[in-house]
Amino acid sequence: MSPSDHRIAYVCKMYPRFSETFIVSELLAREAAGEDLEVVSLRPPADGRFHADLARVRAPVHYLDATTPRSKELWADLQALGSGLRVAELLQAEVRDAVQAIELAALIGERGITHLHAHFGSVATTVARLAARLAGITYSFTAHAKDIFHASVDPHDLRDKLLDAHHVVTVSDFNRRYLRERYGRAADRVHRVYNGIGLDSFPADPTLAGRDVDVVAVGRLVEKKGFDVLLTACALARDRGRPLSCRIVGSGERHDALRAQVDALDLHDHVTLVGPLPQDQVRTELTGAKVMAVPCVHGADGNADGLPTVILEAMALGTPVIATPVTGIPEAVVDSVTGRIVAERDADALATALLELTADASERQRLAAAARRQVEERFASARQAGQLHALLPAVAASEAVA
Fold first, then answer.
1. Any idea what the CATH number is for the domain that residue 138 is in?
2. pLDDT at 141 exceeding the cut of 90
3. Which of 120, 153, 155, 204 has the most neighbouring CB atoms within 10 Å?
4. DSSP string of 173-238, one letter each residue
5. How many CA atoms does the CB half-sphere of 275 hold within 13 Å?
6. How many folded domains does the chain comprise?
């Protein structure tokens, strides 16, 4: 079937969200392929910062009302939605989730939506699943990381979602294996589709010239990013007589702890906590650095990164990546082929790798060329869009789940 045979609504907990550039990239790629898309956000955006690429998304955005409608109106909505409803399951849901599912089901009818796709297997998928049952259409979702690995994940809830989704996408082979090992046959419809990036927006830099910063790191300032390990590695490099300039881009709950660590290690002359930046300025940071460090770790709560999109962006731009073998990262950063891999939480190994690579321009160029080829072959957004389209139902709408 052609892309225009479906009208797909993307369901997000919050759209747009400053840290979720991968959703914007996915929307743009699917629109470029001819898909008819709309976006549904369960919460209004809480941040006034936006990336420039957001203006290129044509899909209309619907914000579901967060307030509970009056009982008479709710009953009328239920009657209008017909027999696709499992009333008991709806009544077991959180009030907000149930009400938003009803609102979304009504929107499905009004807009002629044929399929729902949610990002993250948590609240967005909860609402999408209920709404799809109410409206008698199919749904799917993308499972990332926190919605799989975090200690708060309810395995029974996730199993139910895996079982009755038309299909499930996850962002790495590691995730796919994990879900199949943990959930067995319930995960039979899980497909690995890598997050993609628009290659035109991330042109290769074969010369790697004019890179005055030694190390850049980009991400939310949270435990799983491992930025405390990076700071220790910077202190070790200085103590070995080779201080490294390092810029850490992002914001988050560990900002004060990282600032205190900079103070304790006396790294003020070498490390800058830049704060959050829009995507175009992140590109500038990446192309101004010799190396990007991605020292991800498994958090105490089980949380871990999937395959951070910024790794692919750096690889496309020609910035060699030094990372850890957490979840799907080695599927992009192949040690000594497209980047360097060091052990998780090993600040000494990270310092050694940073010192070696920042001092070796020819090795950086070799890794950068191989990394760009890897991105072109496996992680282009056009490839992602084609794979996602191929997973859609063969008909415009499925029968209601009984």
1. 3.40.50.2000
2. yes
3. 120
4. HHHHHHHHHHHGGGGTTEEE----B-GGGS---SS--S--EEEEEES-SSGGG-HHHHHHHHHHHH
5. 1
6. 2
Residue 385 domain flag: yes
φ, ψ (nearest 5 deg) of residue 213? -90, 140
Residue 204 lies in domain: 199-378
Q: Domain check: are 90 and 213 in the same one?
A: no
User: φ, ψ for residue 175 (rounded to 5)?
Assistant: -60, -45
Same domain flag for 253 and 317:
yes
Q: Which two tokens stand for residue 245?
A: 């300039």
Identify whether residues 52 and 150 lie together within a single domain: yes
Q: Could you tell me if 272 and 348 lie in one domain?
A: yes
Tokens of 49: 């910062």
Are residues 204 and 158 part of one domain? no
Share of residues in the chain with pLDDT > 70 (%): 91
Q: In this structure, are residues 127 and 157 in contact, taking their beta carbons and an 8 Å threshold?
A: no
Tens of pLDDT, residue by residue over 52-106, are 889 999 999 999 976 655 545 665 666 666 545 556 677 788 989 988 999 999 9
Residue 398 resides in a domain: no
Residue 396 confidence (pLDDT): 40
Mean pLDDT of 226-232: 98
Which tokens sit at 361?
A: 């321009």
Its pTM stands at 0.91
Residue from 291, 285, 230, 286 nearest 258 by CA: 230
Tokens standing for residue 211: 């890179």
The predicted-structure confidence for 273-327, as pLDDT tens digits, reads as follows 999 999 999 999 999 999 999 999 999 999 999 899 999 999 999 999 999 999 9
Whose CA is closest to 166, among 123, 112, 120, 117? 117
My answer on whether 232 and 315 are in the same domain is yes
Q: Is 396 among the domain residues?
A: no
